[in-house]
Structures are given as structure tokens and as C-alpha cells.
Amino acid sequence: MSIRAMMTALRFFCGTALQRVVLASLLLGFAATDAALAQASSPTLDTMRKRGILNCGVNTGLAGFAAPDARGRWTGIDADFCRAVAAAVFGDGDKVRFVPLNAKERFTALQSGEVDMLSRNTTWTMSRDTSLGLNFAGVLFYDGQAFMVRKSQKLKSVDELAGSSICVQTGTTNELNLADYFETRGLTYKPVVFERLIEVLAAYQSNRCDAFTTDSSQLVAERTRLADPENHEILTDLISKEPLGPLVRQGDAVWSNVVRWTLFLLINAEELGITQENVGEMRTSPNPEIRRIFGSGSTFGRALGLKDDWAVSVIETVGNYGETFERNLGQSSPLKIERGRNALWTKGGLMYAPPIR
Amino acid sequence: MRTPDLKRWREPSTWKEAAYDPSVRATVFQVLLALAIALLAYEIVSNTVENLRKQNIASGFGFLSETAGFDISQTPIPYTSKSTYGAAFLVGLTNTLIVAFIGIVLATVLGFTIGIARLSPNWLVAKLALSYVELVRNMPLLLQLLVWYVAVLRTLPSPQEALALPGGGFLDVRGLHLPRFTLDSGGAVLAAVLVLTVIGAWWLKRQARIDREAGRSAPTRTSRVGWALVIAAPIVALGIAFAASSVTYPVLGRFNHEGGFSIEPEFLALVIGLSTYTAAFIAEIVRAGLQGVPRGQREAAAALGLSRRQALRLVILPQSLRIIIPPLTNQYLNLTKNSSLAVAIGYPDLVSVFSGTVLNQTGQAVEVILITMAVYLAISLATAAFMNWFNMRTSWAER
């Protein structure tokens, strides 16, 4: 019961002025302890520690991002990021309960506390960052919206899709970008909208629509699931920028920091050449930047509300950003997506993390 | 137990007396209960508001006038991506009402037909109707919708190889494409003829009642001619209007059939699924209603020399309606509420558009769900009110 509601309810019952004064002072005391507690700790971290596991909202099944493999283990860059955060908090990357969510359910699940964080290829937009009561922790993957079409249509650009039926998932930024793109160019199209990506793909496969639009990385993944991938192509035009990243609820700055700095740690580790393999030897590295990260004499972990060796656990569990990318999306995965914009800033990409110091 | 002596009851004069007085006690407990409920409601509302505020989640109904920014596949009322969330809500609501209305009409026609067929003396017809009821009634509706949508409509050919229908229509995986009629000048004539027809029919019915009350049951020559006119006139007028109107036939464009009147496959699947499913239940209600009419009524009708058809139409059916209508109302309400399964096959109904897309884009779950619940409640209450009125009309005056 909130303090304000208590106050009003009590005022409702207690008539005299004296009673009111006594009650108000009592409630003030309550409020003071409440505020002090909120500053010192993170309610999300506390609940998680009590529970002993991280509830992480992921996609219902998107190859390369989050999808259960043949043995039922969740794989993908989003799933690995959940493991990285679990490693940071518990020192054990397996303490994750993956909660598959479709596009429509994801924000409500996070708002209501069903999950502690979302790592579900979600585009960072202003309205989501502000009016939903959520906070983005950073960008895990720079994406853009593209179109998949049948090769037999011999299309060169998106504009040639005027008058066509286009399949899209509901509740996504893709749905909005699509409307904007055709509206600004004065072109018409027929939207065919479904709630789950698998339904969108099935509709496209059965020729219910001429094109299938979503983020380009998803299209690459979805194309491999078609019965005849060789008859389909992805148009090179991108109609939007889609920075995908993990997000948490607003109002828990400590927890928000944990997720954000876990992401920055992955990127910094790649920049410094720390890998899953060499993390052991790196602990004794003379490089002060690396020594700071691994906590010999540093209190960065404690400042996050974690143990000082949090960074070691994270890198031991998933490796650095580059390793995670290659394993799930890059050349050692079936998707073979180029690093491109997702390369480090030192290699011409956009991946840039503030220093750990 | 001593029965309370009502004559000796008087106002309780002391507190103790009042505490043992049943009517005072009842009042006190009722007031306490009302207070508890009010407090609970207040607590729920204030807690929700407070939590939303604390989590910084936008609240209020202002979002309804913000630009929606997404498109909808079926828009019976004008709507573009530049319209507001409020307009998107109305589109979803209209789509729900269209499906519910068409579904109810089809389910009623099909249900009455099958229900009557269940009691047919023809063995084959009766058993066919029985199999239909048992097959359709006992499988989940969601499954049936998916069968209609995925297994039937999805397997239709591509637009390039569309099935040509007689009269210039096409059927393909993108839906049913029919010629579009635009009633230019014929529209006014048609409307006038239809109005005259309705007036004529009403007058003929009145005459028939007067005749019946006067003991003349055989149709007169005037009434025969009158009814023939009432039936023929609108058909002729319709024919003339269509002949005079401009027709746009669907033509295969670069991707789709364009220019005609297109019905989306999602809509077809939903209407077919809902009406065939509900028809099975209505059939059972109709059968029960017909069998609920006392046997003597049927025998009396036969004794009067009425044929089977006449007996059904004039004696049995009117009486069975009293039994049929209340459970029929339930089926209508079920159908309306079941239409929210549309979301599974991508038909843009209220749940799909409003508590799906709009909820997701605005994140205002509490408001959106409240509005959606209020709308379904309003639709259901309105349907129930209409059916209650209809029930009152059909019930016997002396009951």
C-alpha cells in the first residue's frame, strides 16, 4: 500500500486534529526510511538475489538472437547477454530463466515485473524510453529495416513494391516505419499483420503477401527457415535505423547501471583484446586499463552493487562482444552476418563504450 | 422457534434493544459491507494510479487523440496512418461489429436449417445434420479457425493463377475479389422502390390480419397480386439499378487484383469459422425448442388437416420460439465475444488493433484494457437487451 493512499485512507477515518498530527509524523518516519532504503540498494537486485535467478525476457524464437537449440538450450546474442548479466550478478551464467515474449507482450512483462530485464532485439526509440516507464541500457546490435521478396518478382528497390501486400509483425517499429515510408512517398500497399514472427513468415511463404519486412538481421535468420531460401532475396535498401538493445524498468538506477556496464564491459573487453581464452592470464596483465577491469585493488564491482570479480565471470561465461557476435551471428554461425556497423569504432564501426575507470 | 410477533414490534428504545433488532443489524452489516467494498475499490484505483506514476508510465486517455502511425488492412471507415489512436479504435470496433453481425445472421440461418433437419423424417438428412452438430460442436473453435485459415484459404492459388469466378470475380490466396458496383443515378430510384416495398408489405400484412380476424383465411386475389408485386418490384429495381450502375471489375495488377471489391481471407476465415461453429449450438437449441412443444399441438395441427410444413410454420415454430430465444441470446453473445479470436489469424478486430497494436505502441495497458472491456460489455448488454425485447414480444400475452 502506497504511503499517499495510506495517508488519505487514514485521514478519512481519523477526525481530530491531534490524531492527524500524530499520524502525519508517524507516516513521515515511514517515508524517510523508505527513501533511505531506495538510495542504498536496488529492489530489483534484492528480489533477484532472494530468488537466486535472473528472469530475462527474450524473443520467442529468432535465430542468432534468442532461440532454443536442438537440446533446448537458448542460444543467440540476446540470450548470451542475459547470461552475461547473470554472471555479473551471481558469478554463474546459468542462473537465467529465459522468458519467451512476443513483440506485443514484451513491455507489459517488464513493466509488471514478470521479467527483470528485456534482451529481446528491441529498438531504442524516444517514446519507449520515456512514456513506457522503461530505460534502454545501450545498443547491442545496430540494425535497419529491410524487405525480403521473391526473386521471380525481379525487384530492384523498395519503391517498386507500390500496390503490393506486405507482411509485418504487429507492435513493432517496423509496422510504423513501413507506414511512414509509403506515406511520405505517396505509394500504396496492403498491410498483412500478425502477432508472432512465425505467423508472418508462414503468411509470406504461402504467398499471402509479396514482401516480408522486418530488421535486416531477422530477415537473414528467417530466410533460412523458408522451404526454398534460394528463391528469395533481401533488398539492399534499408528504410530505418534500428538500434537494438537491452532494457530495464525506470526507477532502479543501480540495476540499470549493472545492465549498462555489463554491455560496456563486453565492448571494452574486445577493444582491449580480452577473450574467453586469455581471461585467466589477463588478470595479471601489467596494462592498468585491464587491471582496473579485473578488480585487483579496484572497487568498480562494489560500486555496481556486485562482487569485485564480476568482470571475470562475465568474460569467462560469454567472451567479449566480438566473440559473442561471431558465435551467434557472424562467420561461425549459419547466418554469416558481416560485422559492418557493429564493428568496433576503431575498425570503422559504431561500437563504442565509455571507458571503465 | 418462536415466530416474531409483527404487531408487537416497536422502535428499539435502548442501545441493547437495538443491537438485538434484526432490521437494525441487517442495516449495520449492509453499511459495513458497502464501506468495505468502497474502500477496496478506492484502494485498487489509488494503488494503480500511484504505481503508474511511480514507474513513470504515461497514463490518462490523452493518447486517443495522438497520431497512430500504423496502417490497418481492413478499414470500413476512413482511416490512414495519419489518423489518431481514437480512429484506430473505431476501425477495430467497426470490424468487430461487422464480423459479429454477419456471423450472427449466417449462424442463425444455418443453425435453424440444421436444427429442423435434425428432426427430418428423412433418415439421411437427419443423420447428416446430427454428424454436423457432433463434429463441429466438439472441436475447439480456435482449431477450426486455424483449419479454415491455414488449411483451406492459405492453399488457394497465387493472384497470378487466381480461380476465375462467374461474373468477373476472382478467388486467390489474397482473398475474394468481386466486381464493385457504383450506383450512380440508379441509387435514388432503388432506394425509393425499397421504401415503397416496405410500406406495401406492411399494408398487406395489416390487411391479412384484418382478414384473418374476420375469419377469412384463404388468400384473396388482391393479396396474391400484392405480395407478388412486393417481391418482384425490388428485384426488378435492383436489376435495373445494377444494369445502370458502373461496374469496376477486379484486374490483376503488378502484385494484386485491383479495382474491385476485395474481401480479405482473414475475414472470410473468421466469419466461416464463427458461424459454422455457433450454428452447431443453435441447431441443438432449435431441435430442443421444437421437441419442447407438446406432442398434442402437433397432433391437433394434423387433426385440423394442416400439412407437416404448415404445422411447423404455423403451430410448432411460433411456440418453440419461446423456448429457443433465451439460449439463442447466449449463443449470440458467445459469437460476439469469440470474434476476439480474430487475433490468432490476423483479422484487425478490436482486440487485435486496439488492445494489440495500440496498446503496444502507447504502452498504456490499463486504459486500453479498460476501454476494451467496457466495449465488449456494452455490445453484449445491447445484444441481450434487444433479445429480451424480442423475447417479450414472442412470449404469450397471458404468461
The computed structural class of chain A is: alpha/beta
C-alpha end-to-end distance of chain B: 38 Å
Q: CATH topology of the largest domain in chain B, anyone?
A: MetI-like fold
Please report the two chains with the greatest interface, counting residues with C-beta closer than 8 angstroms to the partner's C-beta.
A-B, 47 and 46 residues
**Percentage of residues in DSSP E strands of chain A:** 15-25%
Which features would summarize this protein structure in a list?
A: 357 residues, alpha/beta, D-Maltodextrin-Binding Protein, domain 2, 6-stranded mixed sheet, 5-stranded mixed sheet, 42% helix, 17% strand, B: 399 residues, alpha+beta, MetI-like fold, 8 strands
State the gist of this model.
The complex is a heterodimer of chains A (357) and B (399). With 357 residues, chain A is an alpha/beta fold.
Any chance you could write out the topology, listing elements then pairs?
The complex is a heterodimer of chains A (357) and B (399).
Chain A: H1 3-13, H2 17-40, H3 43-51, E1 54-59, E2 67-68, E3 74-75, H4 77-90, E4 96-101, H5 106-111, E5 117-123, H6 126-130, E6 134-136, E7 141-143, E8 145-150, E9 165-169, H7 173-184, E10 190-194, H8 197-205, E11 211-215, H9 216-223, E12 232-234, E13 242-249, H10 253-272, H11 279-282, H12 288-293, H13 300-303, H14 310-318, H15 321-328
Parallel strand pairs in A: 1-4, 1-5, 9-10, 9-11
Antiparallel strand pairs in A: 2-3, 5-13, 6-13, 7-13, 8-11, 8-12
Helix pairs in contact in A: 1-2, 4-10, 4-14
Chain B: H1 15-19, H2 22-54, H3 85-118, H4 123-137, H5 141-152, E1 163-165, E2 169-172, E3 175-178, E4 180-182, H6 186-213, H7 221-244, E5 246-248, E6 251-252, E7 257-258, E8 261-263, H8 265-291, H9 295-303, H10 308-338, H11 350-362, H12 365-394
Antiparallel strand pairs in B: 1-2, 2-3, 3-8, 4-5, 6-7
Helix pairs in contact in B: 3-4, 3-8, 3-10, 3-11, 4-8, 5-8, 6-7, 8-10, 9-10, 10-12, 11-12
